[in-house]
């Protein structure tokens, strides 16, 4: 935990006696999305409310992104836009200022500060909750979720404790990284192949390191490795060999023709039309970033208009390029990468990794360079898997997801983009019906919303869910319910 961190446990005592009249909402997940959801519920409820927060970890709120201990892992959104709530986007910046930090709103600050802020903000909300609300934080994971005859649900946690609830928010984040195809069992057993690039365990010395991937996860990994092994040669490999786009030092001005662009896109449902419009506008705009940012508010709605064929086409032909222009890195990160490349410490290669085999005291990474059909080999002391975030629930080793899928309580997106939901985020069962009171928030919404992983989309999703879940106060007949 960094210097800004707070003692989370001090805020966990219930604010109100648990009441049978209270609306019971379970929030499952231990990352930023669940923290924001708990916050929105506490801000918006009027009637008695009882929240069971299944965090599955000791420090709820940080999750994968904001649990990093490395100061060189920066936010890729400016500090002024990262407040916990949509009506207080400056909340994070204020928090930093009250801690005496000299930070401008346009700065990209370390992600660990954001984790500190998230925990602090939720801790405060819990401590200051109305007297008719309580939050019980369970550090266990939720393993099963089933519906009851009375219209409510039962959650079983990893201590086999069962609790009933009226509504559920699933904020499970991304899946744990899985080993890529082609990596041999011996390579894995050697300890030289690291599946989870976030692992910070120090390892043996290394002269050559391969990082598979050149996106945001890979960049975090490269920067950490370049500090840990300053003399090692790092080779980053991805099919296209492109690094993410770079933010401007100062925010780009709003795109002046945004209204025309959005109107044109709304009229044009096909991916091909979209691409044509975006190309035309980026050619004429002073800065391409402003065009990409202008489209963001309608990306979810547009994705929902694409049929399966269009979505598949997008994934095959455009996904990589969209990720590059949409998920940009701060200029300071781009500069560090440029320095590493100029010094020869970092090389980027465009190639497909075909296999990873153990080879004496090293690993042999067999690659097919882009544009070639000849395999060639790179020998490395360590190989880090830094590919994008995994949302393919179809073969995930995740007890709750397995339970939901096996019992038909949930269905998988056919393109491996998470779980099926309605357009407003209600979980879809395998029979095609949506649960009235189970919602999904965060990265597993990719199939339904595409744009769903960053804080702004999580914030608006949490507001929508809080509105719908708390609305249940009106129709739940608390007197009749069997508890
Ligand atoms: C490296 C990185 C950097 C990012 N940087 C930014 C940024 O600068 N700005 C921005 O806007 N967005 C950023 N994002 C995107 C976004 O903020 C994150 O994806 C967001 O934190 C997602 O939060 P989450 O809670 O959905 O998921 P996660 O952070 O993955 O957390 C989910 C948590 O739920 C737990 N969990 C899973 N199943 C269960 C269960 N059954 N019971 C209990 N707990 C469970 C998991 O163990 C995990 O701790 C970044 C993402 C990453 C990965």
Automatic annotation (TrEMBL):
Signal peptide: none annotated. It comes from the Bacteria. This is Pyridine nucleotide-disulfide oxidoreductase. Residues 26-174 form the FAD-dependent urate hydroxylase HpyO/Asp monooxygenase CreE-like FAD/NAD(P)-binding domain. Pfam families: NAD_binding_9. InterPro entries: FAD/NAD-bd_sf (IPR036188), HpyO/CreE_NAD-binding (IPR038732), L-asp_N-monooxygenase_NS-form (IPR052189). It comes from Pseudolysobacter antarcticus.
């Amino acid at each position: 935990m960094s210097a800004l961190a707070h003692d989370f446990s001090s805020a966990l005592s219930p604010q109100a006696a648990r009441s049978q009249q209270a609306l019971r909402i379970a929030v499952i997940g231990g990352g930023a999305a669940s923290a924001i959801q708990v916050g929105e519920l506490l801000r918006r409820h009027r009637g008695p409310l009882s929240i069971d927060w299944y965090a599955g970890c000791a420090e709820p709120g940080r999750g994968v992104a904001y649990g990093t201990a490395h100061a060189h892992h920066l936010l890729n959104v400016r500090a002024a836009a990262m407040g916990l709530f949509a009506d207080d986007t400056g909340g994070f910046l204020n928090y930093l200022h009250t801690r005496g930090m000299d930070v401008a709103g346009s700065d990209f600050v370390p992600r660990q500060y954001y984790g500190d802020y998230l925990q602090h903000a939720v801790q405060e909300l819990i401590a200051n909750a109305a007297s008719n609300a309580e939050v019980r934080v369970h550090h266990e994971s939720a393993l099963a979720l089933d519906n009851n005859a009375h219209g409510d649900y039962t959650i079983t946690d990893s201590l086999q404790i069962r609790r009933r609830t009226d509504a559920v928010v699933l904020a499970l984040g991304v899946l744990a990284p899985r080993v890529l195809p082609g990596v041999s069992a011996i390579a894995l057993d050697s300890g030289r192949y690291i599946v989870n690039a976030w692992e910070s365990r120090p390892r043996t010395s290394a002269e050559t390191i391969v990082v598979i991937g050149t996106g945001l996860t890979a960049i975090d990994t490269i920067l950490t490795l370049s500090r840990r092994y300053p003399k090692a040669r790092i080779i980053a490999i991805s099919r296209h060999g492109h690094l993410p786009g770079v933010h401007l030092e100062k925010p780009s001005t709003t795109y002046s023709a945004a209204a025309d662009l959005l109107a044109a896109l709304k009229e044009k449902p096909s991916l091909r039309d979209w691409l044509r419009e975006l190309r035309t506008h980026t050619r004429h705009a002073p800065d391409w970033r402003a065009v990409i940012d202008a489209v963001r508010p309608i990306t979810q709605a547009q994705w929902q208009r694409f049929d399966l064929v269009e979505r598949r086409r997008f994934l095959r032909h455009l996904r990589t390029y969209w990720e590059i222009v949409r998920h940009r890195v701060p200029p300071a990160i781009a500069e560090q990468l440029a320095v590493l490349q100029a010094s020869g410490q970092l090389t980027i290669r465009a190639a497909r990794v075909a296999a990873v085999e153990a080879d004496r005291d090293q690993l042999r990474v067999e690659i097919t360079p882009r544009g070639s059909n000849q395999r060639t080999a790179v020998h490395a002391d360590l190989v880090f898997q830094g590919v994008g975030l995994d949302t393919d629930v179809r073969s995930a080793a995740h007890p709750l997801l397995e339970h939901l899928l096996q019992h038909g309580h949930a269905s998988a997106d056919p393109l491996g983009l998470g779980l099926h939901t309605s357009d407003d985020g209600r979980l879809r069962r395998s029979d095609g019906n949506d649960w009235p009171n189970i919602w999904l928030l965060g990265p597993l919404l990719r199939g339904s919303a595409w744009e769903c992983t960053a804080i702004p989309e999580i914030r608006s999703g949490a507001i929508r869910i809080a509105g719908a879940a708390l609305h249940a106060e009106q129709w739940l007949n608390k007197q009749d319910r069997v508890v």
